[in-house]
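Could you please review the protein record set out just below?
***
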Amino acid sequence: TPRTLFPYTTLFRSGWNMFSEIIKYKTFGFNKSQVGRALDINYKTVQKYWVMSPDRYVKVTIESKIRYKKN
């Protein structure tokens, strides 16, 4: 089962670590549902990062930290 393949992954829940874990499982041939179950995260989170490149991930992360004041 996917949970026993990388048991340490439950320690890394957010940020770059989660993104890299999703990509790692993807390269091993897991599908989105299996990755979600293995990492104990929502399927929609896996779907969000599934086709994202590392450069795009960095850009999205930076943009999410910037807030603009409404005039």
